[in-house]
Structures are given as structure tokens and as C-alpha cells.
């Protein structure tokens, strides 16, 4: 199965990452004063005006100190305002940032050496991990054997550096880890811009949002799936590290409107009875990425937090997020990552033969690279190493890593219910719900005597967690239009679930 759409990033074929992200960052007094990036625990932050001015100044300072286009610069920093500043200062100087946070010192040294990084930007207490022969270090703070990063901030204008977005690198990053070998990924400006624009125009985040993210900003998903799209839109991005109780305090303190979290944190929140002690009324959505999340865990977290939980998926080689399910509650697909963002091409193949898999049959998810048509490299299909299946509507369900024990893909509740011997027709439609906003309800036309309880029990035995169906209603007819599509409003009226004045 292949999904494709119009890639919004194709409208920006000549943009560098810095221009795409910070091109209008300091424009206007209101936006200039708005927080751009903050650290959740310490409160350190930079406004858009400060970030734009210091990025230009630091880029000019790096060029003055001998950094040349194409040079690789290591970044060993905590996620937060300093990381965003260093990242975009290096890029604006025409150099290539290489974030190496969260890795053992020996591995960092090997990676920086193999990448030819002769300069690194670091943090007090972390400098030891990036020291190397003839490597020059700039540090945010006092650290023996380093130069202060502040010395780069001379107030000079941003340098004019020739960049070919389709060919020149904008990022070197690490991916893999505990579940597989560590590998480096090299991404051009065109690929990075494509990735961040896809997310920025998907509707996950808006300019008025405060986005609290527990995804490491040093990884591609956090960097180009949250930080860069958020900055492009003018949102405030808050970097978080810690456990669930620290998370709840941070969500309340920063009045977060969107939280981007890994699945373990979402699962923990769904079981945490202390959630009600915190004022989370500003939180309008949770997005989870970094692994599959079961529908029942998403539903439990949504009920606790009082907002929808949506799943996203991406890989470093595709420059961030490729799939985002913004209609999970409406469609009753809380365990799906969605259909794929515009411009993303994907397919599910048999892991041994490479043949395309039919709907509901698990296989390996592959993504076509480069995602953007502006990249000057041959296109190829990349196996992601993730097991997945797609339903008849093109929605992708990620099951886990290929080769690991995994559940069989669930069927569609509508088809399963219609197969019951006493049911002649069935449909599933979203119904307003006080806790979830919308929840999937099933509707059945029966020909023999049966009960709602019998039908719910039937769904229980054929579908894990009933695929989210919370109720079954018996109706005399499923109203459909001439094309066979269910007329949802008429169906709800027949079942007595229509809107009340």
C-alpha cells in the first residue's frame, strides 16, 4: 500500500533551515517578546527576539573564529534554550550541527572523531565527553579548557553564507540505540525543511500554543518534529526531563496546551490517580511518539487528562514525523498513527519477500526517501524495522519492532459485528462523549433474537478491547446515501442519540 499527497515543503525549495525556522522570529514587538524556548525545570528561557539576535551574533562569531561551510560542530548540551541557540547558530554559519547528548563518553568521542568535528559546543560538567585532540570547545558557562560561548556574541550581523539546500548538509544525527545498532544520519537543508514544514502545516500545533515536550530535543523527532515546527509557527517550546509527577507539575506551571510525550509517560498518566490534583485545564491535546501505544492506554490517559491523546510516528532518515493521527477520537482509531502526512509515501511489505501486504496483514513499514522532491539524491525505499499493518482506509497501526512478539492486528469492529449470524447490517460512528469528546459506538440491524450484551460479548471475543467501541445500539436500518456511505446524523437520530436543543 502506498500513500501520497501534495508535499507542502515543495513550496520552499530554496530555503535553509534557519530561514525556514527563524526567518520572521523577531518581527513585530509582540512576537519578539514571546517566549520561544524554555527549560521546564530551571525556567531558563529565550524570547523570539533574543533567540533571533543571538543566533545571528553567534553565527557571525563562529565564522570569525574560523568555522567554514560544511564543518561539523558537535553539540553536547541539555535540551533547552541554549541547545536551540547553538543549533541554529551553527546552521546559520553554514556549518553542520551534530547533537550527541545522552550517549556514553567513549561513544561520543568515536562519533565526533569519525565525523571530523574539530569544534564542539558544550555545557558545564559535560565538556569531558567532547574533549579531543585539537578540538576547540565553546561552553555555556565556566569550564576549564574551554572558551565561553558568550565570546561569540559580538553583536555582528548574520553572515552571508552560500548554501545549496538540495545538496548541503544541515544536520548529522544519531539514531538507533537499545533496540538496535547506533547509526548516524545525514540530512540536507531540503530534507530538514520538508520535515519541519510537514508538521508545522499539519495542525498539531498553533502559534498560540505552549508545547511541553519530553522527547529529547537532541534527537531528530524532538528537534525537527517539535522544536523547529514550533518555532516556525511562533509557539513556545518547553523542554522537559523527569518522571510523571515532575511532568504534572511542569504542565501546570507552564500552562501547557500541547504535550508531546513518549508512550511510557502516557501510560503512567493513565494510571495515576493524582492527576486530578493538578490544574491542567489549559491542556488541549497530548501527542505521543517514539513507540506504539495501546488504545486502552490512550483512552485511559485521555479520560484522566480531559483531552484527546493522538499518536505520531517518524524516523530520523525522514527528517522527523511522517504520520500523525489527529482524528483518532473521531474515527475510533486511538492505536493508529494515521494515514501519513502530505508528501509522505509509505507501504507495508512482507519482511522476507518484500511483496506488498494487503490490508490488515502485518509486515514491515517502509518509507520512501528522500521524502522531499527537492533533495538531489536518488529515491529509495527504506525499511523502518517496525512491524505494522494498514486498514482499508489507509490508516497505519504500528505493532513494534520487526521480529519481536506482537499481537495480531485487530479487525474492523463494523466488519466483525456484521459477521455475527444474527446481524444483517452494522456500522460504527463517533458519538459525543463527556470524557473523550467523541467515542465510537456500534449500531446493528438484527434478524434473530439477540441482545446488546450478547453483541458486546461477541466483540470482546473477536477484538482486543473491542477496538474502542463503548456501546452497541439496535436499530431497524442503517441509513446510507446512494454511494453506500453511512449518514451519521440520521443514524444517531434513529438511535435516539441526536443532539438535543
TrEMBL record:
Keyword flag Cell division: no
Similarity comment: family membership: Belongs to the ATP-dependent AMP-binding enzyme family.
Record has Signal as a keyword: no
SUPFAM superfamilies per record: Acetyl-CoA synthetase-like (SSF56801)
Matching Pfam families: AMP-binding (PF00501), AMP-binding_C (PF13193)
Keywords: Ligase
Boundaries of every AMP-binding enzyme C-terminal domain copy: 414-482
Residue span, AMP-dependent synthetase/ligase domain: 32-370
Origin species: Actinomadura nitritigenes
TM region(s), chain numbering: none
Protein's name in the database: AMP-binding protein
Entry-linked InterPro entries: AMP-bd_C, AMP-bd_C_sf, AMP-dep_synth/lig_dom, ANL_N_sf
Amino acid at each position: 500500500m502506498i500513500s501520497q499527497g501534495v508535499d507542502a515543503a515543495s513550496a520552499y525549495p530554496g530555503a535553509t533551515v534557519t530561514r525556514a525556522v527563524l526567518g520572521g522570529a523577531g518581527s513585530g514587538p509582540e512576537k519578539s517578546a514571546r517566549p520561544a524556548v524554555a527549560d521546564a525545570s530551571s525556567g531558563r528561557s529565550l524570547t523570539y527576539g533574543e533567540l533571533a539576535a543571538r543566533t545571528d551574533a553567534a553565527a557571525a562569531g563562529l565564522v570569525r573564529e574560523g568555522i567554514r561551510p560544511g564543518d561539523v560542530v558537535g553539540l553536547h548540551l541539555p535540551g533547552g534554550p541554549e541547545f536551540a541557540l547553538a543549533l541554529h547558530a551553527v546552521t546559520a554559519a553554514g556549518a553542520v550541527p551534530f547533537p550527541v547528548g545522552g550517549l556514553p563518553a567513549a561513544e561520543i568521542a568515536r562519533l565526533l572523531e569519525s565525523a571530523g568535528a574539530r569544534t564542539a559546543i558544550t555545557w558545564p560538567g559535560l565538556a569531558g565527553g567532547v574533549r579531543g585532540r585539537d578540538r576547540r570547545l565553546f561552553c555555556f558557562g565556566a569550564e576549564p579548557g574551554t572558551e565561553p560561548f558568550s565570546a561569540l556574541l559580538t553583536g555582528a550581523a548574520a553572515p552571508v553564507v552560500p548554501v545549496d539546500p538540495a545538496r548541503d548538509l544541515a544536520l548529522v544525527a544519531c539514531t538507533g540505540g537499545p533496540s538496535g545498532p547506533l547509526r548516524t544520519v545525514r540530512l540536507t537543508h531540503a530534507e530538514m525543511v520538508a520535515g519541519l514544514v510537514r508538521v508545522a502545516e499539519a495542525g498539531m500545533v498553533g502559534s498560540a500554543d505552549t508545547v511541553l515536550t519530553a522527547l529529547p530535543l537532541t534527537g531528530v523527532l524532538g528537534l525537527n518534529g517539535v522544536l523547529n515546527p514550533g518555532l516556525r509557527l511562533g509557539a513556545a517550546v518547553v523542554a522537559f526531563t523527569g518522571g510523571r509527577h515532575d511532568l504534572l507539575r511542569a504542565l501546570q506551571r507552564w500552562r501547557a496546551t500541547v504535550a508531546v510525550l513518549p508512550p511510557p509517560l502516557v501510560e503512567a498518566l493513565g494510571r495515576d490517580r493524582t492527576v486530578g490534583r493538578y490544574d491542567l485545564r489549559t491542556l488541549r491535546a497530548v501527542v505521543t511518539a517514539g513507540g506504539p501505544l495501546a488504545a486502552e492506554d490512550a483512552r485511559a490517559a485521555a479520560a484522566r487528562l480531559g483531552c484527546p491523546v493522538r499518536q505520531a510516528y517518524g524516523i530520523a532518515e525522514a527528517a522527523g514525523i511522517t504520520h500523525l493521527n489527529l482524528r483518532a477520537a473521531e474515527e475510533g482509531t486511538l492505536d493508529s498513527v494515521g494515514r501519513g502526512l502530505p508528501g509522505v509515501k509509505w507501504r507495508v511489505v512482507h519482511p522476507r519477500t518484500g511483496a506488498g501486504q494487503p490490508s490488515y496483514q502485518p509486515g514491515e513499514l517502509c518509507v520512501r526517501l528522500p521524502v522531499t522532491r527537492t533533495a538531489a539524491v536518488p529515491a529509495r525505499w527504506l525499511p523502518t524495522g517496525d512491524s505494522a499493518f494498514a486498514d482499508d482506509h489507509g490508516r497505519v497501526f504500528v505493532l513494534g519492532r520487526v521480529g519481536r512478539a506482537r499481537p495480531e492486528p485487530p479487525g474492523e469492529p463494523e466488519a466483525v459485528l456484521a459477521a455475527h449470524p444474527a446481524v444483517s447490517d452494522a456500522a460504527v460512528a463517533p458519538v459525543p462523549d463527556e470524557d473523550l469528546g467523541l467515542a465510537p459506538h456500534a449500531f446493528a440491524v438484527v434478524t434473530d433474537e439477540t441482545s446488546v450484551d450478547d453483541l458486546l460479548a461477541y466483540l470482546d471475543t473477536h477484538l482486543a478491547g473491542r477496538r474502542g467501541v463503548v456501546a452497541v445500539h439496535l436499530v431497524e436500518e442503517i441509513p446510507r446515501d446512494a454511494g453506500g456511505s453511512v449518514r451519521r446524523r440520521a443514524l444517531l437520530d434513529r438511535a435516539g442519540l441526536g443532539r438535543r436543543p
